[in-house]
Design brief:
Blueprint (H helix, E strand, L loop, with lengths): L1 H8 L2 H15 L4 H40 L5 E2 L1 H33 L4 E3 L2 H17 L4 H31 L5 E2 L4 H14 L21 H19 L2 H7 L5 H40 L5 E4 L9 H21 L12 H46 L7 E2 L3 H17 L1 H31 L1
Parallel strand pairs: 1-5, 2-4, 3-4
Helix pairs in contact: 1-4, 2-3, 2-10, 3-8, 3-10, 4-5, 4-6, 5-6, 5-13, 6-7, 6-12, 7-12, 8-10, 11-12, 12-13, 13-14
């Protein structure tokens, strides 16, 4: 049973497909429409995931070359690596927290104003592992750990999208979709800063290009050229024997170009998968909104926002990379652990922040917001790492800002006041949700009386 629950949540395409199926059935759609809508939702998500996998694989070849080129050593944030350790030590508890967390997500969305259904299954898995690990260091165990952990998890599943939604809405122009990616802290802070320092009228998508450089207007070509430049610089500067081993003896220049263009192909595939999935999941979700959770909003993975600012994706990534690398260079002069910039989270989080920041502050806001985003992706994991050391996570840590923030809050509360600190946090969350539920109920009654 535990293996089934774990496998279910580790297959986000199945979760998305099941949600679409439930929504279409709730709308009493025909068999044909239900079948087509469900399968296209799953296939669209898988296309998006395959594109993301291609991007991740390409960056995985760049990462060791990056370390070699710049002679860096330290801890690389890697969510999947932490999961491997957590599953071995706390597998049963983590799985139950994950499953019950989804139940709490639905209950909170059903009865409060926080109408978000968090559908990014692998991020739910990562957050479940983090919460389980940190609670166990605070001496929680058994049923107590599972109930407290799943409630906190369900709370993050509605609060994280809610924090980002005002900025997300400015990008999409509607509340039909939300951000299901645990980086609300960096997304919201950098978007707020971008609004203060930038000019949204000067968008990244409106950058003027001379006629003889008109090919730069095509986002696919721009992405390809930028990535080719990055790969060439890193691979040429890296140890020749390392690159030769990765390329199986192929010419370094050709290997760099192919890897960069493979990355670009992955990006194009992501965009196509997003378009296909959204065309099906949003109409299907109306059934969820009408029958199960009124006004429900699906919170989907970060690539869903990429089509809304394809230049901002690349600019946000580059600005985040610069901010991360500079913060990495500063860390040795502090007492914090040395965190190596992880290129996979830097790309996906940097790209998402870029689109959000552009809607608030245009080109200048995207660059400044991205730089600050890069600082957060290094600094917050460095602050959290000592809180995970007791469980043997000393060689890696989580790479996203919400994981770090939740881990720091829970860990510091436990260190300062023990279990009482955690129970105080749960009590505060309950008060927030109960107040929201009461307001929703009185609002409905007022509407009926009117």
């Amino acid at each position: 049973m535990m293996n089934f629950i774990y496998s279910f949540f580790n297959q986000p395409a199945i979760i998305i497909g099941l949600i679409a199926l439930i929504g279409l059935i709730a709308q009493k759609s025909s068999f044909s429409k239900t079948l087509v809508g469900t399968l296209k939702t799953v296939i669209g998500f898988l296309i998006m995931s395959l594109g993301g996998g291609i991007i991740s694989d390409s960056l995985s070849t760049l990462a060791p070359a990056f370390e070699s080129a710049f002679h860096v050593q330290g801890v690389i944030p890697n969510n999947e690596a932490v999961i491997g350790v957590a599953q071995n030590m706390l597998g049963t508890e983590m799985t139950l927290v994950m499953g019950l967390g989804f139940v709490f997500n639905i209950l909170i969305a059903r009865f409060t104003k926080y109408k978000y259904i968090f559908l990014t299954g692998h991020h739910v898995l990562f957050m479940a592992a983090l919460i389980t690990a940190v609670l166990s260091t605070a001496q929680f165990e058994g049923i107590e750990l599972i109930l407290i952990g799943s409630f906190i998890l369900g709370s993050t599943m509605v609060l994280s999208p809610a924090i980002v939604q005002p900025f997300y809405r400015d990008v999409t122009g509607a509340d039909s979709v939300a951000m299901g990616h645990y980086n609300a802290v960096s997304y919201s802070i950098t978007s707020f800063i971008a609004k203060l320092v930038g000019d949204k009228e000067n968008s990244t998508e409106d950058v003027k290009v001379p006629d003889n450089l008109s090919f730069f207007r095509d986002s696919t070509i721009t992405t390809g050229l930028v990535m080719v430049l990055i790969y060439l610089i890193v691979f040429i500067a890296a140890d020749a024997s390392l690159v030769s081993e990765m390329s199986n003896g192929d010419n370094i220049i050709m290997f760099a170009i192919v890897q960069a263009l493979t990355f670009t192909a992955g990006f194009v595939i992501v965009l196509q998968g997003v378009r296909m999935m959204l065309a099906e999941i949003i109409p299907a979700f109306q059934g969820i909104s009408e029958k199960i959770v009124p006004d429900a909003i699906p919170a989907l993975d970060v690539p869903v926002i990429f089509p809304y600012g394809q230049n901002a994706v690349i600019i946000g990534f580059l600005a985040t990379l610069v901010g991360s690398f500079i913060t990495f260079l500063v860390l040795p002069f502090t007492d914090l652990p040395l965190i190596i910039p992880g290129l996979i989270p830097i790309f996906f989080v940097g790209a998402g922040a870029g689109v959000l920041n552009n809607a608030q502050g245009g080109l200048r806001g995207t660059i400044i917001g991205g730089f600050i985003n890069g600082i957060s992706l290094i600094l917050l994991p460095a602050l959290m790492l000592p809180l995970l050391g007791d469980l043997g996570f000393t060689n890696t840590t989580f790479g996203d800002t919400d994981f770090a923030t939740v881990g720091i809050i829970i860990g510091q509360l436990a260190k300062l006041v023990g279990k009482n600190g955690i129970y105080s946090l749960v009590f505060i969350l309950l008060i927030i949700f109960m107040f929201s539920a009461f307001r929703s109920l009185t609002s409905k009654r007022g509407g009926q009386n009117g």
